[in-house]
Amino acid sequence: MAKPTHHLFVCGSFRANGERQGVCHKKDSISLLSYLQSEVQDRMLDGVEIAVTGCMNFCVKGPVMVDYPAGNFYRVPNNDAINAILDAIEEDSVCEEFLLAE
């Protein structure tokens, strides 16, 4: 497998013991993850990989996704946000609307 140009990590609120807890989980980040996976496939975005993570400690902003290696952290409240972020990736830009500021 070639190194991805975008590796999207979605917070699944997993704890060290494997349990899902926390804000991102309660705001259904796993359903968003599923939608993200289907959209990446439908758009045939080569070089985009997806993974679910443990807590990223941005709970009040959740659900949260990070685009690595760019280092862009996004709040992902719904499928529209995913569409906008993927549109930006296709355009080789940053989705300012959902970008998390410090």
Provide structural commentary.
The chain is of the alpha+beta class. The chain has one domain: Glutaredoxin, CATH 3.40.30.10. Helix content is 29%, strand content 25%. It has a 4-stranded mixed beta sheet with strand order 2-1-3-4.
Descriptive key words:
102 residues, alpha+beta, 25% strand, 3 helices, 4 strands, Glutaredoxin, four-stranded mixed β-sheet
Q: What does the secondary structure layout of this molecule look like, with pairings?
A:
Layout: E1 6-14, H1 23-26, H2 29-42, E2 48-54, E3 64-68, E4 72-75, H3 79-90
Parallel strand pairs: 1-2
Antiparallel strand pairs: 1-3, 3-4
Helix pairs in contact: 2-3
Percent of residues in helices comes to 25-40%
- State Rg: 13 Å
Overall structural domain count? 1
Total helices: the number is: 3
Task: List SSEs in N-to-C order.
Answer: EHHEEEH
CATH homologous group name: Glutaredoxin
CATH class, anyone?
Answer: Alpha Beta
Task: Work out the oligomeric state of the chains in this entry.
Answer: single chain
Q: How would the global form be characterised?
A: globular
Question: Can you tell me the residue ranges where pLDDT is under 50 for at least 5 consecutive residues?
Answer: none
CATH fold node name: Glutaredoxin
